[in-house]
Specification:
The complex is a heterodimer of chains A (about 250) and B (about 425).
Chain A: E1 4-13, E2 23-31, E3 35-39, H1 46-53, E4 61-66, E5 69-70, H2 75-81, E6 82-85, H3 97-107, H4 112-125, H5 141-153, E7 159-163, H6 171-186, E8 190-194, H7 198-204, E9 207-212, E10 215-221, H8 233-242
Parallel strand pairs in A: 3-8, 3-9, 6-7, 7-8
Antiparallel strand pairs in A: 1-2, 1-4, 4-5, 9-10
Helix pairs in contact in A: 3-4
Chain B: H1 2-16, H2 19-48, E1 52-58, H3 63-75, E2 78-83, H4 89-98, E3 103-107, H5 111-130, E4 148-151, H6 157-188, H7 194-202, H8 223-237, H9 239-252, H10 254-260, H11 266-298, H12 310-334, H13 338-355, H14 367-373, H15 377-389, H16 399-422
Parallel strand pairs in B: 1-2, 1-3
Antiparallel strand pairs in B: 3-4
């Protein structure tokens, strides 16, 4: 039987004070070790689903299991299993990369020596060694993205949630980040990834799901999607299924 | 424990890089202490040591006005300058400006005559009452033209009242002397002997001023003893600007989202902030008290005398600091933006300081405000300090002030933690 990293069943969620369901009876399975991409137009429910899976939002109906354990029942234990790289820069701008990694590493449950070793590794891999002691607030957007990623993976999570990890970066930084994510996945980390960069998704993901109005409308291996055989690729499929009208009005 | 230590290190780094916050927390209370103490010390000097410049325009040529001038000189409160009797009101006002005089008195031309008339009248009525004279006394003497007291508008009402009290006592002395002399002459048909007059009028019972203190040190309180504790507490509570906005910044920044996905309770972060900022408030105490002890004497201000119970001072400072930090955290938890935290934090501290007796002495507050004062943690902190600094008390003596302060602190903590729970942040 296939081991699942994420198993969502009959999940329903609405924000307090809103009448419409944001997530409506959603079911989803992501295999352990998979590179999974979650896509959808603005307001489709991607970030909400990401926040429900990471425990940032709590839900009443349905279940979410990470590596077989119910998120609701073991919130603290769950947090040791995954890493999260939010879209916003999620670190202290007044601190250096080393200081940020020392703090977030401790909060992730690592010991001093482990933090030290991982910090050296990550700074090296992500090209931040030369600026290790400079305040992150002075960094370029690309460097900040790399710091953001480094903090999310310092504790070698089994599952890594990435919410648009390459937004606003140059080609070199995007290439470095995608390459590093593939290395992580090769070493056993399941990637759950959202982005509006569909070309990038084709490069990184093995399997994708398209979400719209809180429902999964397609969930398939990338190579099995028929539209990819045509020149429009994933973007063509995306527009076919969700339409061309603006969605964030 | 390692998580807490790592968080403390993180908060320490962030604090030391927040130059504006540090400036507000240290420079502002130091400036306030130095400026307010200097102003109050000079006011005390003006009242206690310096003589108030007074112009005297004596339009009277009689003996009573001479006695009045002597009596005013004897008060010792005024630097008296006599100006020509011919000056009118406007010229006198000009002279006040020219000579930097805060006060001027005009003695009317018929002063001595009227004083004598009044003395004669009272003497006659007294002799009539005793049955020693058949001469009918006038029921009421003719009205006397009042002495005119001109004052500079800067003089406050309370100060003018004390000046008027001093002048009244001089006037009373002159009137009493006249009545006594007239009465003595009427009975004995000879002048009142100088020695007897002196015994009756001048030989008053002395008033010995003794400052009360529990440790019996009888130190005389000065502006420093009042101001250093008061503005230290004010500075401690101004931590709200740095800590309140620090919490809001963390809440609004992505780092807070990340913290919520990590297997550590946010209470660790709150505890770390309390440790760091309690350290800051203790540093404020050390810096400001050191300035009072060592710097003040060098710049001509009264030296701060530390209380005999140094352990009590440490405990009171720690509780005041903890209360200030708790308040700042509470503001940070409720505020939605940094502007809200800074604005509400600063204004609320000024209000709490005002009703707590930092800006205005608590005894000077109207009765309707007295109950409000008890709601201000700054009031209880100040009273706890005053017990040690002004009354020479021990820690136990201030327990009735320390316990409410501790109670308010615990209440604020409870409110902050409940709000965090309600917002699903812990």
């Amino acid at each position: 039987m296939e081991k699942l990293a994420v198993h969502i069943e009959n999940l329903r969620f609405r924000y307090p004070g809103q009448s419409n369901m944001c997530i409506a009876n959603l079911n989803l399975k992501v295999a352990d070790g998979e590179r999974f991409g979650l896509f959808g137009p603005n307001g489709a429910g991607k970030t909400t689903l990401m926040h429900l899976m990471t425990g940032l939002l709590s839900f009443d109906e349905g279940s979410i299991r990470l590596l077989g354990q119910e998120v609701k029942h073991h919130p603290m234990a769950m947090k040791k299993l995954f890493g999260f790289v939010p879209q916003d820069f999620s670190f202290y701008h007044e601190l250096s990369p080393v200081e940020n990694l020392a703090f977030f590493g401790a909060w992730a449950g690592l010991r001093k020596q482990e933090i030290r070793t991982r910090t050296i590794e990550l700074l090296e891999v992500l090209g931040l060694t030369d600026v290790r002691d400079k305040q992150v607030g002075t960094f370029s957007g690309g460097m900040k993205r790399r710091v953001n990623l480094a903090i999310g993976v310092i504790h070698k999570p089994r599952i890594l949630f990435l919410d648009e990890p390459t937004v606003g970066v140059d080609v070199q930084t995007r290439h470095a980040i995608i390459h590093y994510l593939k290395v992580l996945n090769h070493n056993g980390t399941t990637l759950i990834y959202t982005s509006h960069q569909l070309g990038e998704a084709e490069e990184l993901c093995e399997k994708v799901a398209l979400i719209d109005e809180g429902e999964i409308i397609i969930h398939e291996f990338l190579h099995k999607l028929p539209s990819l055989q045509h020149e429009n690729g994933l973007e063509g499929l995306f527009l076919n299924l969700t339409g061309k009208a603006f969605r964030d009005l | 424990m390692f998580k807490l230590w790592a968080t403390i290190i993180k908060d320490f780094h962030i604090l030391t890089r927040d130059r504006v916050g540090l400036t507000l927390m240290f420079v502002m209370p130091i400036l306030l202490v130095v400026i307010i103490t200097s102003i109050q010390a000079s006011t005390f000097d003006l009242v206690n040591d310096n003589k108030v410049p007074l112009l005297l325009c004596n339009k009277d040529k009689g003996e009573a006005s001479v006695q009045l001038v002597q009596a005013i000189r004897k008060i010792g409160m005024f630097a008296l300058t006599e100006v020509p009797a011919t000056l009118d009101e406007k010229q006198l006002a000009d002279q006040m400006t020219d000579k930097d005089a805060l006060l001027a008195i005009t003695i009317p031309g018929d002063f001595s005559t009227k004083i004598k008339e009044k003395a004669k009248n009272i003497s006659d009525r007294a002799l009539n009452d005793f049955g020693l004279s058949e001469q009918a006394a006038k029921a009421k003497p003719d009205a006397m033209e009042p002495l005119a007291l001109y004052y500079h508008p800067v003089l406050q009402e309370s100060y003018r009242a004390s000046i008027q009290g001093a002048l009244r006592s001089a006037l009373q002395l002159v009137e009493s002397k006249q009545i006594l002399q007239t009465l003595y002459f009427a009975i004995n048909e000879k002048q009142l002997p100088a020695a007897l007059e002196n015994d009756i009028i001048n030989d008053q019972v002395a008033i010995n001023e003794i400052p009360v203190s529990k440790d019996g040190s009888r130190r005389i309180p000065n502006a420093t003893q009042h101001n250093i504790p008061a503005w230290t507490i004010f500075g401690m509570f101004f931590i709200v600007i740095s800590l309140g906005s620090n919490i809001v910044r963390e809440k609004l920044s992505g780092s807070f989202v990340r913290l919520k996905t990590l297997p550590t309770n946010y209470l660790v972060a709150l505890f770390s902030k309390q440790v760091i900022y309690l350290g800051v408030s203790m540093a404020q105490v050390v810096v400001i008290f050191s300035i009072g002890v060592w710097l003040f004497p060098l710049i001509g201000l009264p030296k701060l005398n530390l209380p005999s119970d140094l352990f009590g001072l440490l405990v009171v400072s720690l509780i005041c600091g903890w209360c200030a930090v708790s308040y700042a955290i509470c503001v940070g938890v409720f505020a939605q933006t940094q502007e809200q935290a800074n604005g509400f934090g600063a204004v609320s501290i000024v209000i709490l300081a005002a009703i707590g007796g930092i800006l205005v002495p608590s005894f000077a507050m109207p009765a309707s405000f007295q109950w409000l004062m008890k709601l201000s943690p700054l009031h209880w902190g100040l009273e706890s300090y005053y017990k040690l600094f002004l009354e020479g008390g021990q820690l136990g003596d201030g327990l009735m002030n320390i316990l409410p302060l501790l109670g308010i602190t615990l209440l604020i903590q409870l409110i902050a933690i409940s709000a965090l729970k309600q917002k699903n942040l812990i």
